[in-house]
Amino acid sequence: MSTSRPASEARTGRVLAGVLALAVLALGVVVWLAGWHLGADSAVYRAGALTLLHGDPLYTRDVLTALPDWVRLPFTYTPAAAPLFLPLALVPSGLVWGVIAVLSVVALMVVITVVSSSPGHSSLLGRSRWALPAGTAIALALEPVWKTLFLGQINLILMAFVVLDVLVLSLRGSRWAGVLIGVAAAIKLTPLIFVPHLFFTGRWKDGLRALGTFVGLEAVMFAVIPVDAARFWRDSATDPSRVGSVHWIFNQSLNGLVNRASELASWSLAVAVGVAAVLAVPAVWLVVRLHRRGEDAAALLVTAFYGLLLSPVSWSHHWVWCVPLLTLLVVKARWWAAAAVTALFVSQIVMLVPNGGDTEFGWGLGWSVVGNVYVLAAAGGILGLAARELRLVRRSPQVVTV
Questions:
Q1: What is the C-alpha to C-alpha distance for residues 10 and 119, in angstroms, rounded to an integer?
Q2: How far is residue 291's CA from residue 245's CA, in Å, rounded to a whole number?
């Protein structure tokens, strides 16, 4: 086979993927012109930027005045997120969803490309022109992905920041490594979990750079909007209920599971944190082991899923990390595992369980297992991989690939 054939296949695949991205942009224009109401969260991003420009308070129990009349959501992001959303203020209100959607689809392709080409794995993208567009199309059918797009969320974009930072910039020794994680954390606090990931994997400079970027951006906001910045860190940042009912089924975190089981007992968060602390031991050990033998993509995924379990609120659309997981399983030819992950997230199972109000409190054992399936699958996966790793250590002192 000619050496130019794989390169040609890869170029054709990128063209097909680009056509898919343009189709999403065209859909965004149609949504705008038709006046359809999509992307409630993207409307909040734009409203936060406009509120900052107008000098109005960001963190209030009242609805932001810059929001369209069909959205009634608070601004739950950090103070530094508001200026980072300023480019959206230049976009017509109805077109914001389309802009976020096309950026999210591009981010999805970036993640698939980087993970499938990570060191130690041969990329599938050069073998078939259909690999990238087909992989993207399959990813769009996963519940966290399509829900992210429907809501106009930025989960996919932030995930791409982290993946590029850890698996590209950091591995290349770039002086910019850590910056993208810092920016992502300055928008949503949950990417802060990747700072200790860098520390535990021996990349201290990158971790300090990520932390410095985050602290620097937030410090700037204390100078720009001191009252709002203080209000966020004093009140909003420690109030998970501000983003919604923590016991709702779509909060697929340990905190959500415990709150459902305890019927919102006052000790629920403490128990969830305690369970997470115990789970941190095998998770960190697994991350270090995987990193030391060059499986950085797998190590990153362990941290990502542990972060979803640890966060007080992990809505089901935050679980977009199923995309790089599925990509890695396909690259490693773990077909049964890939099929199981696909079935879990395509099934939309969390959408089918009775929920809302106090319904979760009366589930019983059967519905409780199904209603906490993302949490149980992630915790079981981390414990299962750690147990398997321990067996490998006992069998041989040599490094063995999983």
A1: 18
A2: 37
